[in-house]
Amino acid sequence: MLRSRLRSWLRSATDVTTPRELGLPDEMLRRAHSIAEGSGEWTPPVPRHAATVVLLRDTDDGVEVFLMRRVSTMAFAAGMHVFPGGVVDPDDSTVTLQLGRNDTTESLDQRLTAPPGLGSALVAAAARETFEECGVLLVSPIGDTVNLEMALDDERWEPRRRALLEGDRAFSELLDGDGLAVDASSIRPWAHWITPEVDNRRYNTRFFVAAIPEGQRARDLGGEADRVHWTTPASALKRHEAGELAMMLPTVDTLTALLPFSSAHEVIAAADERVVRPLMPQATFDDHGSITWGLVDQSTGDVVLELDTPTPGTMSRKESP
Questions:
Q1: What residue ranges do the domains of the chain occupy?
Q2: 3-class DSSP state for residue 150?
Q3: Tens of each residue's pLDDT in the chain, 321 residues
Q4: Which of 24, 25, 204, 218 gives the lowest tally of CB atoms within 10 Å of its CB?
C-alpha cells in the first residue's frame, strides 16, 4: 500500500504521462542529481508554511471527509483532490485563539515542529482557509456574552468572507469585532508533510482534523476548486486506486490513517495521541545511478520508509519501526 501511494504521488506531483525514473521529468531528475552530489546547480526553494484541514462529519455510513478538486489552471496540484488549506498570512499571528485545556502556545510549537509563535499562526491559518474556501467557521465565543448562533449567521458573514478574500478585511479584525476566537481545541494536529526538494513550489504543511460544527455547511466558495464532495475515506481510496480521484501522497496517507475510525469524535480523540513527524520524500542514488525514494523525518534525519526502485517495475519497500 505505501509503495503504491508513493508511486501515485510521484506521478501526480510531477504531472507527466510517460514515467521516467518513476515519473521524474528531466529537469527534476537533474535537480535530484544536483542535490545528491552537492554540485550546487540547484538550490531548493525554502518551503512556505501552510495549513490544511481535514473536515469531518458523522453519517450513517461512518465518518466522512470534505474533498475539493483543484481547478486545472492552478500552478500547484492542479486537478488534485485536496482538503481545504493554504499558506500562512502575516495576520494569522495576530488572531486570538481559544486553546484546548492542555494546550499552550509552546506546546503547539513543539507538536507542529514550529519556531516560537508559528504554531498559533498555523492553527489560525487553518481556520481562516477553511472559512475562505468553504464557509465553515471553527470559532468559539470569548466570554459568556456572545450568542454564537446569532454571531455565525450566514447573512452577516458571507459579505465578510468576500471582503477577507479580496484583502479588504483581516481575519483577526472580523473575529475580534464579534467577540470570537479561533477554537484551537477543535482543530487538532494530525500530520506534517514537506514538499520534496526537487520541486520548485514547496510547502511546509501541517495537517489538522476538525469536525464541522453543528448547523454549518461546507461548500465551494474560494474559487480554487471546480468540484467539492463529502466521502468516506474508504470510498475515496477505492476511487483513487481505480484512477477516478487524483490525489497526492499526503492526502492518500491521511485518508488511509482515518480508515479505523467510525466517528469524528474518535478521530479528534486519536489526534492528541499521534506523534506528528515532519515527513519529506527524498531522492538518493545507488552506486549504479538508480534513483531511490524514501520518507525522511526532517526533525531527526531518520528515514522512516525506504523504497528501493532500480526500475519502475521492480519496486520494493522496507519500513523502519
A1: 45-279
A2: helix
A3: 554 555 444 444 443 332 333 456 778 888 888 888 888 888 899 999 999 999 999 999 999 999 998 775 555 656 789 999 999 999 999 999 999 888 999 999 999 999 999 999 999 999 999 999 999 999 998 876 555 665 566 677 888 888 998 889 999 999 998 889 999 999 999 999 999 998 888 999 999 999 999 889 898 776 666 788 999 999 999 999 998 888 888 999 999 999 999 999 999 999 999 999 999 988 878 777 777 788 899 999 998 887 644 333 223 333 333
A4: 25
205 Cβ neighbours under 8 A, 6+ residues apart: 49, 50, 51, 52, 85, 192, 193, 194, 195, 250
Q: Is 5 strand, coil or helix? A: helix
The four Cα atoms 180, 207, 54, 93 give a dihedral, to 10 degrees, of 20
Measured over the CA atoms of residue 234, residue 135, residue 79 and residue 4, the dihedral's sign is: negative
Residue 67 to residues 70, 110, 225: CA-CA distances in angstroms?
10, 28, 10
Residue 189 has phi, psi (to 5 degrees) of: -60, 140
Q: Which element (helix H / strand E) includes 171?
A: helix 171-177
Cβ atoms within 10 Å of 289's Cβ, excluding its own: 9
Name the architecture of domain 45-279.
Alpha-Beta Complex (3.90)
Residue indicated by cell numbers 471546480: 226
> Which residues on neighbouring strands pair with residue 188, listed in sequence order?
209
CA distances for 99 relative to 107, 124, 187, angstroms: 11, 11, 10
Q: What are the residues whose beta carbons fall under 8 Å from the beta carbon of 181, sequence distance 6 or more?
A: 95, 96, 97, 98, 139, 140, 141, 142, 175
53, 130 in Cβ contact below 8 A? yes
